Structure formats: structure tokens, C-alpha cells
Amino acid sequence: MRVAIFGAGASAIAAAHYLMRKGISDITLFEKADELGGTWRDNRYPGVACDVPSHLYRFTFAPNAEWTQRCSPGDEIQSYMRDTAVKLGLIDKIRFGHEVTDATYTDGRWAVTTTQGLQGEFDAIISATGALHHPRFPDIDGIEDFAGLACHSARWDPGTDLSGKRVGVIGSGSTGTQIVAAVVDRVAQLTLFQRTPQWIMPLPNHPIEEEKRQEYRDNPAAMDSYYAYLADRFNTVFADAVSGNNPEAYEHMAQACENNLHASVQDPVLRAKLTPDYKVGCKRLVVSDTFYHAIQQPHAQLETGAIARIEPDGVRTDDGALHDLDVIIFATGFYAHSICHPMHITGREGISLNEAWNEGNVAYRSVAVPGFPNFFLIGGPNSPIGNFSYLMTAETQAKYVAELVSKLGNAEVQSIEPDAGVTRRYNAELREAMHGTIWTSGCDSWYFDPHGRVASYPWSYSRFAEDMKAPDMRDFKLVRA
Ligand code: NAP
Asked: What is the pTM of this model?
């Protein structure tokens, strides 16, 4: 049995691990870059860190006593990804510099082609290419005309020296706020161009002392207990609060964000500019206990006027003012719904995934698509996303997918795909449940796909965990050889 995995980030590592646990070791990971790590390889902007505590943002199969901070910086997470891949023996299985261009299904086998040509046939393919992956540049006139350094946050060169520079940050999401807080003390002038304010949850970050790390080295069970505690807090309290399944926790969370704003920002004019007009949790919550302080520094400015255009010397706002800048950082997010783009995936009877998803990405429980036998996704359409550990989601899906793939090891089974009717009903139920969720309560966010549908998961995390415990084979079509 040969399995191809597209990507070599967290989802791919999880997929490879669970396949190997099933005894499937002929695995090839196709990675377009020259390094693994996905989002943690790409995002090296100042202040990049995970706002989920590190002892939760780790694979269950790779506990790590060495985290140095409650919420660790991006380079530490990237090292963890690499170390985990090395420990699993994955490095030799990765073909770096191979961007998948085509995958075509014929009679139980997928032919995979990358930018380096045809790579052979595989019994199953798993797309693990991540959602926050294709940088989105803003549609602003003159964006090409800027004479200084202009860069998307996910393409930042960490060697860039910002000291003494006039820096503009466009975008005030999780990324923009991290950048502002990280660079404010070293730049000459900082302007944050904010189109929409964000609710901000103050989660203090703090170092994990050597003594604590030694305790975790000596007693891994203590780390597991802490993981279980954090998982409970994030999944049954926090995630359920946002998905409407824990109203009491929601009120608590909303109050914490409002209190944070009022306690941190005294100037009523600035506070008004920073006050969202939508509910807490409608957009993905920003987590920071440093941003409000940073934006109140004397050389920092919050610009809320609309951007008219970008000129060689800086950004001109609608009121006619030119903001002179040396550097512009676009913290403007990603095309979060471009799953499997720009690949050509051709399933049974010549159906293309692009056509199948013409009106929006649809999958059976996020992991499989009718008409595409032996094709699976990690982080696929309507996966749980938000303020909790994506690694838990990826692992849960990877385990489930590995179970399905292992059924192909049985010589009698040539292909597995989800039933079209079951998939339709699942998605109808999902869309119905989406009405009335916090994400549809009156804001715009990257959760919305280009068709206006929210691509998140509307139910509780415990339902996700329960539903994904094991595949219900009645929902799948098996073709016997
Ligand atoms: P984002 O949440 O999509 O935010 C993009 C920002 O750019 C928004 O403030 C948006 O304004 C603004 N923007 C977009 N186009 C614009 C334009 N033409 N003019 C002015 N402003 C414009 O992107 P992100 O901050 O990179 O975060 C994406 C996701 O990555 C997060 O939600 C999170 O899931 C993940 N992330 C996680 C962490 C972490 O610590 N775990 C850190 C960074 C990112 P509007 O709000 O008005 O659209």
C-alpha cells in the first residue's frame, strides 16, 4: 500500500504518524517548499507566536517538556515540528521542492504529478495543505508603487531590521496585533491601519522556568494531566462558549474582553476607535495582553480612516493625509478557502474537485468527498477552527482517515468514498446549525467563504470528538476488487 500526503506541516505529520501506527509505512510527503512546518515555516514576522498554550498546542504523541513560554514563539514551534518529524523518521519520506499540480484517479490508484513531473501511483492520497496558506494582499490602488519595503506577514524575512524605521501595518487581526506589540519599541514611528476593531482577550504570556521543565522531563504524566486540563478549558469552555454551547462561559469571555478594553485604554477617543460594533467571538478572537499598551505609545498611531491608495512615499487615507512610511507590512490574512488550490484533482469518471466545489467546498465530515475515492483531507471544509488547538483537530481527523486508509490494505477493497446522499444530508444539517451562530451575528471574517457561507464547525467540540472516534462504514461506498 502506497500513500501520498500533500504538504509537510502539522496536519501532514499527524497523518503520517497515524498511518504508521496502522502499519502503513510506504508514505511519501510532497512539500512545495524546501522545509517542513507549514504555517510555522512561513510565518516569521516579528512577534509570531501561538496564542494557544504550548502544552496544548502539541501532538499527543509527541509531548514536549522544553517549551520556554506559556505561549511559545513561532521559531520554537517550528523546531518542535521538525524534531517531531525527525523522531518519526519522516524526513526521508518528504520530497521537498515538489508542489503537487495534478492527481488523477483511475481504478483504485491515484497518479500524482508535481512540478518535478509524474511521481508514480498511490493507493490513497491525503491532502494536508492547511487553510491559512495563501497570502491575501489587499485590493488597494497603487500597491505596486510603494518605494520602500512592502511585505505580506507570511513572507516576512526575519533578518529585516526595523530599527529607526517608519512602519505601517495594515490589518488588525491576530497577526497585525502581534506585529504591533513586537515592533513598537524598536521603530521610529508606527501606524496601524485598522479597518475593523477587534475584541481582545488578555491572556498573559509568561516564561516556563527550568524547574518546571525539569519536573515535566521527570514526570511526563504531569504534562499529560496539564494537557488534559487545557484541552478541557479550551474545548468544553472556550470553544463551546463561542459555538453557543456554553452561554455562561460566553458571558464570562465577553465580559473579560470588554473589561480588558476599558481597563487598558483610558482615552475615550482611542477607546471608541478600538471598540468593535459586533459581538465578542464573531471574528476569531485576538489574544494579547500587550497590544493595547503598544498602540498607546507616543510614536504609535491608530489610523481608522479608509485607505485611498498607496503611493511611493506611503499610504494616503481618504481624508487626503499622506502617512510617510519606510516599510508596509500587510497583515491582511489569507485565502482561507483555497483548499487544494491550485492543484487539479480529478476523481472518478473525470470529475474535477474544482467543479465539484464550484459552489463551495463540501465534504463528508471535513475529510472525504463523494466521487473522489481514496482521497482524504486533514483540515478540510468545515473543520473546527478558531481559538483552540488546531493540532487536536488535525490529530482527530488523521486517526479517522488512517482507519479508512487501512481498510484499503484488505486486498478485497479497491476503493472507499463517502455516500453522496449522506454527505448532502450532513452538509444540510451543518448549514442549518450555522444559522444563529456567533459567526453569523453581524461581522465579516475569514470564516466566510466566497459564497457567503461560514466554513467553521457549528457544533460542540465534544460532538466533533465523538463523531470522529471511528468511521461509520454505513456512510461509505466500498468498491470490492
Ligand atoms: P485576518 O484575521 O484575516 O485579518 C486580516 C486583517 O487585515 C483584518 O484586520 C482585515 O480587516 C484587514 N484587511 C484586509 N484587507 C484589508 C484592506 N483592503 N484594507 C484594510 N484592512 C484590510 O488575518 P490574520 O491576522 O493573519 O489572522 C488569520 C488567522 O491566522 C487568525 O484568525 C488565526 O486563526 C491565525 N493566526 C493565529 C495566530 C496565533 O497566535 N495562533 C497568530 C496569527 C494568526 P477587516 O477585519 O475589516 O476585514
From this structure: 0.96
